[in-house]
Please model this.
Amino acid sequence: MLGRPVADVRAFFGGETSRRGGLALIPGIDWLAGTPARHGVEGTQPGGARRPGLRKAEAEELRRYYGALGSEHCYFAAEVGGEAVATSILTRPDWTDLDSASDSFALDVRSDLGPRPAAPNDGASRLVKATAADVRIIDRPLYRLLDVDVCAGRVGGMVGTASFMEYALGPDLLERELEAGETRLRSELLPDLRSVLDVRNRLCAGGALALTAIARPADSARGEADYLLLVQERSSHVVNGSGRLAVIPKGFHGPLADQRGDARIGATLRRELEEELFGREDVDTTGEVQRAADPMHPARLSEPMRWLMAESGRVRTECTGFGFNLVSGNYEFAALVVIEDEEFWPRFGGVVEANWEVSGLRQYSTLDGELVSELIADEKWTNEGLFAFLLGLRRLSEIGGARVSLPSIDLRC
Model:
């Protein structure tokens, strides 16, 4: 594995950090190194693990910061069973009613058009791995959003590439700054809503995440036929959202081997399913250098994925929404993955296992509206995770028939 110990990370930037970039780079290096906060970045526990933030408090603080919106955009919120739920996702009504299959994503890979303003931590452009607190980073390319064209039935746009390290030492630090109740970095990177939407002139990384629903046959112990819902608790080893709840799969959108082909959101979702639930360590982008010419070739697929792909109709994937997460400015493509064939769970349920990014994997039934309602109210959700979960549940309620008995979800956007 190509990487560097913490001492090498510091040596790479040399002793002139303060002269080259002020103190802006130091919090990033200290965070990557797991060093206790000394520069106003708080929210840590002994051993480097951060306290999970509270979603509602995050949403309220960001709404105060960015203020009232115009008629076109809105803060994503919902009423679930009579209870209000708020998030920090900036979206539009036509971005949450897409009805689009994931394979219709056709984000064009183009060259980055012109220089962008330097981020406070610009210059971290080499492959780096920090190895304290078991948080590891590999500097692989990400797709940065340059333009977006999203509406019902169509999801498209334009992406370029950016360094993951550039993201980790810049926009990603906004989450930690928010937990510390500070705004210095935000005032430089995302000072207002105009800057959030001006994706061409900022580093707007992001990803795809999906609610996974697996059809199960009726069972004498469990009851009637339903869908199994999977929800993860993020481990302390991940870059962001550690200790928080999210749907699974969830991953950064970036190329694996085919820069143009991998720009399809469906490609990222299939890769993340393989990595996070079906045991494919070789498609983990934080692992060793990718040597396979076609990592997602049918001959390399896991047994569960190969079975799903063998016949049409066994699995369906739909995009359910799009928005910008104001916590970090990331773009978020929310999706729903439905495994429709009841044979899948009896055959492969025993080998479905989360990877290192997950500290706990929970399962819920679409017939247990009470537990699902309690889950929705949990403050440990990431904002993007709850965004995808609610949109996925709403879509399941439309297509799931008797397998679904969930609380009503009324969007407030």
